[in-house]
Every structure is written in structure tokens, then in C-alpha cells.
From TrEMBL:
Signal peptide as annotated in the record: none
This protein's encoding gene: HDA1_1
Region spans: Disordered: 1-144, 170-232, 866-895
InterPro entries: Arb2-like_domain, HDACs, His_deacetylse_dom, His_deacetylse_dom_sf, Ureohydrolase_dom_sf
Biological process terms in GO annotation: epigenetic regulation of gene expression
Keywords: Chromatin regulator, Hydrolase, Nucleus, Repressor, Transcription, Transcription regulation
Protein name, entry field: histone deacetylase
Membrane-crossing segments per the record: none
Reactions that this protein is recorded to catalyse: N(6)-acetyl-L-lysyl-[histone] + H2O = L-lysyl-[histone] + acetate
Pfam family, one: Hist_deacetyl
Organism: Linnemannia gamsii
Enzyme Commission designation: 3.5.1.98
Amino acid sequence: MQDASYPESHELATTNGEVTEEMMDTTGAEAEESSGVITSNETPMDLSPEEPTTATTTTTTTEDTAAITNEPNEPTAVTVSEPSVTEPIVTESADPAPSDTEPTTAEPKHAEPTDIELADAEPADDTEPTTTEQIVIDEDTTKPTTITDTVVNIVDPPSTISTAAATGASEIGLSPSPQTVENELPLGDATSGVPASSETGDDGPSIPMSGQSAVVTSATPRPQPDIIDGRSTKTGYVYDVRMRFHQNIHGDNDHPEDPRRIWKIYEALKNAGCLTRMVKLPSREATQAELALVHTAEHIQTITDTAKMDREQLLDVANSYNSIYLSAESAICARLSCGNLLELCSAVATGKVLNGVAIVRPPGHHAEPDEAGGFCLYNNVAIAARFLQKEHGLKKIFILDWDVHHGNGTQKAFLDDPDIVYCSIHRYDDGTFYPGDPVAAALDMIGVGEGRGKNINIPWPCNGMGDAEYIYAFHKVIMPIIYEFAPDFVLVSAGFDAAAGDHIGENLVSPAAYGHMTHMLKALAGGKIVLALEGGYNLESIAVSGLACTKALLSDPIPALGSIIPNPICIQTIHEVLEVQSRYWKSITPMFIDPIEGWNVVELSKVLGVYRSDFLYKEHRMLKLPISNSSYGADFLDNVHCTQQLYSTKPLYIFIHNVGEFRARTMGANNILRPDKSKMLDTVAHYVERIVQSGNELIDIVVPYQPATEDDKEPLKDKLTELLCDIWDNFVYMTGDTRRIVLLAAGFGCYSMISFMNERQKDVARYVSCAVVVPGGDEAVPMVTKRLANWYMDHSFVVVADDHPIWERVNQKMSNRTGNIVRSGRPSERLSESLPRLYNPLFVEIDRRIKALPPLNPPSYMLNLQEPTNNSDNKTNGVNDGSSFTEAMIIDSEP
């Protein structure tokens, strides 16, 4: 389908709508076989109603043929002219010998393409037949040379080509009669390089990849009817080798958007025997009217005009965009990429095929309505969504984008559309990961106007997300929403740069996980689902991942996944996404709080603060410490308490800890708490009791809330640090030389405690007798400054779990800045579990350390701050095996 507005001089040569692989890959053994020869091995099943046509018979000279063989590495853009003969020319050939040589990508010439006239029929194999079709291209590529004399001999494939009687049987959804079965060509690609008869036999080898789940490459067809409820049961695909003409002509041969990406996926499907069970749809370009469903006329014209530009002009236009390269063939390749996807979507929408996969490039999800970007010229999936609505009357479209990059272009096209849901699961990295828009890619970008709630972003805060995290996101967010939305059609922007092995995405998704995700999606919309290739830059990863998705569409068995245990970062991210999206989807339990204006709203932390003040006064006669600093006073007004003899010479403990664990149960259908089923685990009450009843003074500081994100942690840490510094300066410093001072921190308060010690390092080294740090879980161990490292090593003990990552470095040189690290005697656990168990061991160790110190009088006990020596920060005893810790540390004990 060609729009009249596009210049014919920039079309590419086809054979029945295709260019064979030899036009692209003429290196090594293939160059010897295919110099100047275009052949193919099969005739794809044609879904169009047009009558078959064949080519004009022409002749070439020896001098003309040399024009191709002189430069075998450079693919050349060529032009199709309409055939005029109505009968195919059929001859016999010798047995072909398939070639396994992998094609290489070469820089194309960028002058005006050369016109040729080409046969509209195909030989059975891509190796050199007895009689060949020769294409002559003028050595002078500054202008096209129209060829009118080309000899075309079409090799008869092993399965006999029938007359027009077999044409009706080739229509999708119609089972051929017994008389025509032998005449129906096997399905496959014209460039497969495998004889038609062999494609139904041996399955070729799959493309292995280390570190990934194995994908079963044998594809055993299952007997099933061709039509169910008026719809075909076949899986369709589109692939056109001409899309590889879009190449980077400006010197970067290692560009990640490699033209071989689509060839690798195609080869994987062919070798696994999938293509013989699939329907190949005819290739076409998108029309200008179709592109205009999403893109502005100015943008379409800019891309179209690149076909007439020279090398320097192409470079200037490419540099005006973000991460784009261009060649003279880029415009037609982009139209082919989009047009092929539209053809596949149309076939699925009308029931000619059940579902399908579009092996297309250039990709599209970064292309915005008015500009290209991120390797994308036109937004294929966005255009397909509008095309389905306009041409097929499908109203509700669900677009899932699992490419590792956020699809900014697709999102922008539908932000205010209530009938199209766009869901992206991508790396975010605090808004720095490409495309680098911290607002557009954030989880709270939910759409605008009538489209509010129809935009769903699942932003991973870091790399390393794998099967467990993606499957968790599917079960918690994607599947509930998509079932509630009940789409008429599902489009997948199937980028494979989140796959294990991709050096850009740096995630760990296996082919099996891609298969499972595809399997879940294909149960929706009556099975109307199309996967369109986006990114993916490891050639082996995209091959095995694309194969896994295709096999899922074909209903082949999917390899089992391992245990699905998502990491804490994933769980927290999904929790935050649900909190935002639960406002708009009834299938998600509400997790938001909408305060009612004019009514009194009290934070639960304030209620707990009042409880704690009452409890500490009744039990220990402790009072609230006066707080006057406005920068943090509101957060800690009810969270800082002290004993009444604060200025005595008794030992003083400064204890900073979390509020405890508040465990609540909601009503189920909403987020209203059931007070009778909600409890707080006060894990520090016994610590306070032990300190006070042992004759010590205490300043008790409660961290009012547990920060959930990195954005919340830093401000809270700074507030706590400022609070500790004020308490030290106003209530502790003046009695420091007359008493023992113990610093005790658990949970998030550890970071503020260490930050405070770094702020007041001279006073700390002089007055503090012992510092105890219990970070909890697998939290990072905070570090003091280098100047405080020697003192901290001698006066601290830091309790971490037995499986904490720091123990992996036990035999390496460790910094004294982390303190004297000891094992807790247990694997990682919550503080509510570890603090009760560590109760006795901690106080035994504190008492032992204090007793080992010299007496307070004479004042020689004061410890002077020492400058670190060259090796002071790299002592091997910075981490020990726990022998310096009392044996009670690994004994379970109740307070």
C-alpha cells in the first residue's frame, strides 16, 4: 500500500513485496553465492485480494553484473516498478545448499537509489540455482539506472505450485481441500535459506545464551481446527528484510540499534520451526494519512525529505534530534516498520490470524507526535492503536510497554485519552535513565483530563530487576488493571533490553519470564494481541527472548520459573504504584488518604506520640525534653523524652530508635482501619526499663516514621542529626567530663547517630565511652570520618546479621570507619525480631566495655583525637568473626 505523496525513487526492491537477505548480506560465502543475484525460497501466504502477478523477462550484460560484485559489502537502495506479465515463469533447479553464514552490517551508499524491475515470484531457496535472476546496478550511484532486461528463472519449490484453484485455500482461516493440500506452499520467509520441504522436518538449533533460562527450541505443531468461532487459530508475523537498509552512515559501526536485530529474531524463529506454523502477512508501507493519526504534518514531511538529502544534510537533521541516526533509506524503512505492524493488526482485528508478532525496525515508542528521538522515527504502536480505533471500530486499547526505557512518545500521544491505557514498566533511576525525564516517567504521572488514571508508570529505581520483580508487577498491578479495563485489543511494545545480557538495560529478565508474561496477556481481549519489537541491543538476548514470546503465542509449553521472591526495592516500588493507582481502579484495594476539608485530621504518629509521653511518665517519670527549633520541632515535639536528673553524674544513655512496628488490618474493600485488629509492637520498652532501673539517666528519641524512599531518607536524617547536635550542645556537653556517656542507635536512627558523631567528632572522642549501632536487616553500615576511625574502632560495636553483604569482604582489608563489626548470630530479620533477642547480650557487652575503661578521675581518662596513620584506615581487623563479642550474642534470650 503506497501513498502517492511519496517519491517513487526511494522505494526498495522487492520480490513479491520482499527483498531477499542476499541484498543485505553479501559477505563471505554468501557474497560468492549471491553477487548480483536475488533469490528466495518460498512464497508467503498472501492475505490480499489482488491477483498474483509475475515479472518482466529482461537480460543483463557481463559489464553490468560486475557492478554488484565489485562492492559486495554495501547494500544498495533500489526501486520497484510494477510487473506487467500475468503468468509466472517456472523452471526446475538443482538441489539447494542452505547457507548458515551470519550477515554483517555495512554502511550503505547515500546517493539516489537505482531503479530495477523485478519478478513477482520467488525461487525455493536462497542459494544459487541453476538459472538465476540477475540485478544490475550502475557503478555510478549518483543517479538511478533503470534496467529493462533482466533474466528471471523461478525455481519450482518441492511442493508444487498449483493454479488459481489453490489460491482460495491459501486464504487465512480456510482449510484447503484434500486436492489442494499438496499445492499449498509451507509458511515461512522468503529469505529463510531453508528449502520449503525441509522446514516441516528438522528444527534448527536455537540461539543459546549463557546465564539465562533455557528456551525449548523444538516446536511440535498441535492438531487444532483452523477456525474457531469465525476466527483463525493461526499466529501471524511480519518481517521485511528491507527494514535493514536503515543504517548508521556516520562512522559508528557499534551503534546499539543494529540492523541485524530483526534478522536475529527471524533466524531464531526459523531455526525453532516456528515459521512453518505461522502465517506471514504481506509487507507494505504506512500511508501519510496513517502516519498523521499520531504525527504532525511537519514531522512527517521532515522524515520524508531525508530520502533526498546528501550525507551532510542527513547528519545535520539527525543531530537536531536526541539519539537518532539517518540514512537515505531511513524514511521508507520507517514507513515499512509502521505499515507492517498495521497490516498485522488489521489481520488480527478481522480474524484472519489469532495473534501475531511484528519483527520490525526502526522502533517507535520514543517518537513523539512532533519529533523523532531515541532511535525512533515514527511511533508504530501509537499509530496502530489509532488505526485500530479508526479502521476497525475497536474502542478500548491496552498498550503494555515492557521495554527497559520509558516510552515517552507513546505516553504523550494518549495522556488525555480515556479509551487507551498506557502502562510502562521501566528503569527510572531517580529520573536519570533515558529518556531522562523525571516528571514524565515518574509513578505519579497518571494522565490528564479525561485520561487521568489511564497512564500507569512502574519505575524501577535501579538495575538488577529480574523474573521475580517483573512477574510480581504483573500480578499486583498490570493484570488486575487490564482485567478491569477489559480491552478490545492488546498491543505490546516488546523491547527486550530488560533481558539478561543486555548491557544497556542491565536487568535480568529471562526468556522464560517473557514467555510467561506473553502467556498471561494473550488470554485477554479474546486473544487479540500483537507484539511489536522496540528495543533490545544484545543480539543473542533478543533472539531467545523473541522466540520465547512467539512460542507462548503459539501455545507451546513455557519453561518453569524459579521461586518468585521479589526484592524489597521492587516490593516498595509496587506499593507506591498501587497507592497512586488505587484512586482510579476498583480492582486495587484503596491505599490513599483523601482528607476532608473542614474536618479535623490527626496523623497516627501524633496519636502514638501522646501515648508514649503518657506511658514514659507513668512508668519512669520521664518528661518531654523542650524542643524549640522550628526546622524539626514539629516532627519531634512528642518524640523526645528524658529522665528528671539529666544533669547528674550518673551514666547517660542517648537512645535513638524507631517508633515500633504498627501492624494494622483494614476492612478489606477499602483502607479503613479496624482499631480492634491493629496493634503496635513496642520493642524498646524493655530497653528503656533496663536503662532507667539500673540507675542511669536517659534521653529517649523516637524516629517518628520509617522513610519509604530514598527521597524521604535524606531529609529525615538531616533533621535527626540537627536534633542530636542541639541536644548535645544544650544538655550533654557541660557534664561530659563527669560521667559515662553511651550512644545507642537502632534502625534508621543509626545513620543520624553516625552523622552526629561526624559533626561533633572532637567532643565524641573525648566524652563518649561506648557507641552501639544496630542497623537491622541488610541495611548499609554507616561510616565515621577518617579522623574518628581509630577511636570508633576501639569504642564501638556494630551488630549485623550473619548474611549481611559486608561479610563477603571478611578476608579483605576493611576500613576502621565502619567500626568493630560483630555477627548477630542470625540471618537478616526485622528489628522487631532482633531487638528482643539482643536485649541481654547488648547490655552485657556495654557493661563489660565501661568497666574496662580507666576511672573518670584523674582527668587523664580523656581521649585525644588522633590523626590517622597511612594504614589506620585499612586494618584487617576492621571486621572480625565475632570473637570480641560476648558469647551471649548468639544465644536466644528473652528480656
